Amino acid sequence: MAKIDAFFKLMHEQGASDLHLISGQQPIIRIRGDLERIKYKVLDSDDVRSMLYEITPEEKVKVFEETGDVDFAYEIPGLARYRANYFMQKNGIGAVFREIPSVIMTPEQLGLPPVISKLALLPRGLVIITGPTGCGKSTTLAAIVDKANQMRKDHIITVEDPIEFVHTSQNCVINHREVGIHTKSFQAALKGALREDPDIIMVGEMRDLETISLAIEAASTGHLVFATLHTTSAAKTVDRIIEVFPSHQQPQIRSTLADGIRAIIAQVLFKRIDRKARCVALEILIATPAVRNLIREAKTYQIPSMMQTGKKYGMQLLDDAIMDLYSKGWISADEAYTKANDKARFRPYIKEAPADFTEV
């Protein structure tokens, strides 16, 4: 057993999401969103290096020593997979591990609205899961792909850096591809995927113009594409995608995106106050013909009002979802206020506004 495995087992027992091993500090784990130090000696750079290199593939060690950064996945059979990131910093080596559960939870177990499961059955189009780092995008995406795996008879290709949730082929045939090991880049994998008879393509992250362009193209040519992005709302996601392109291409991309988009899910994680757990608030945009028309005509500022009137299609605003969690007594008023888009709506429920002078 590798020496570092003891930390992973402790992390799993404590229900932690992340493990930090930083030269010059004690090991640290993140539990329910908060960092807590483990009662252990302060690690020097040699301690961290020896622990990390014990579990690191040789080719990844070479990449790390050449560039100062590397990503890969590490698995402890019967426990979990871990997404690893190594980096160099002032005091030496640092590493952060994110636990990826070996069991994929269903949308129902995650407490997601029924419309999320329906996304797995779409015949074609682009579905984007968005939100800040660590908000559970990968977990939601894995639940949707797993639902498709059970309900459809199709070919699913996933492109990730690194592979996170591992799906076993059920009714579908699933091929996992990892950037850097099985393919040179997201772009190369997406170009190849279009010749590999896919029905569903899952893109771990739309990082750049070419990846976004290929994802939109795949969605427009009859494939169902799932992807993630780092934005804070459904309307901002549309703007972010279009703004990546040069100005002379934007009208064409706006039209292509309007034709291909099917749904955008923006999510935020909250610490529950009624028990030791976390819960998610979702903003859901379903691309009805009216919504697609707003995208085509560059009127994304009208999307929130369209979402308010589109509840019968499964749409909901983030603030409505947050209010629902607060009304159930699951989350605190202070956290609801901090993470809401419309702060004024939650101001009456808190004693005093947090001291963030940048919020008007």
Quick structural summary:
With 360 residues, this protein is α/β, with parallel strands linked by helices.
Structural commentary:
By secondary structure, this protein is of the alpha/beta class. It has 2 domains: 5-101, Beta-Lactamase; 114-345, 3-Layer(aba) Sandwich (Rossmann fold), CATH 3.40.50.300. The protein is built from 14 helices and 13 strands. The protein has helices spanning 5-14, 45-53, 58-67, 114-118, 137-151, 186-193, 209-220, 234-243, 250-260, 289-296, 303-308, 318-327, 333-339, 343-346, and strands at residues 18-22, 28-31, 34-37, 69-76, 80-89, 92-101, 125-130, 155-160, 173-178, 200-203, 224-229, 261-271, 278-286. The strands form 2 sheets. Strands 9-8-10-11-7-12-13 form a 7-stranded mixed β-sheet, sandwiched between helices. Helix 9 (250-260) runs antiparallel to helix 10 (289-296). The chain is globular and about 60 Å long. The model has no long low-confidence stretch (mean pLDDT 93).
Describe the protein's topology.
Blueprint: H1 5-14, E1 18-22, E2 28-31, E3 34-37, H2 45-53, H3 58-67, E4 69-76, E5 80-89, E6 92-101, H4 114-118, E7 125-130, H5 137-151, E8 155-160, E9 173-178, H6 186-193, E10 200-203, H7 209-220, E11 224-229, H8 234-243, H9 250-260, E12 261-271, E13 278-286, H10 289-296, H11 303-308, H12 318-327, H13 333-339, H14 343-346
Parallel strand pairs: 7-11, 7-12, 8-9, 8-10, 10-11
Antiparallel strand pairs: 1-2, 1-6, 2-3, 4-5, 5-6, 12-13
Helix pairs in contact: 6-7, 7-9, 9-10
